Amino acid sequence: MTEIRLKRVYDKAARSDGPRLLVDRVWPRGISKEEAGLAEWLKGLAPSTDLRKWFGHDSSRWDGFRERYLQELVSGENGDLGILVKYLEEHDRITLVFAAKDTEHNNALALKQFIEAGQLPI
User: Fold this and answer.
1) Which Pfam families match (predicted)?
2) Which are the contacts of 120, defined by CB distance < 8 A and separation ≥ 6?
């Protein structure tokens, strides 16, 4: 199984990260594409704007956010999900990159948990 790491986009990229995949819908403030060192920007794996605003990084809404986010990920066509699967199949390690300050309650962590628990249709 592919090792999945998490890293804030503002943290320096390392060769050991493997491919770095940004999973936010909005480009992070104050960082250039070169600085980010990304292999892909997978906007389609980010929560919807409505869900993101509802969550507001309120840790008391974490469980509800995770459930709703998974529903969004598995419903309908999502080309970015296919791209993620390709990276998981082709690499021993990937890094999901995010901008949130809260490293314990964010969509990248939820996505990692879903993948590791076998909850995504991959």
Assistant:
1) DUF488-N3i (PF22752)
2) 70, 73, 74, 81, 114
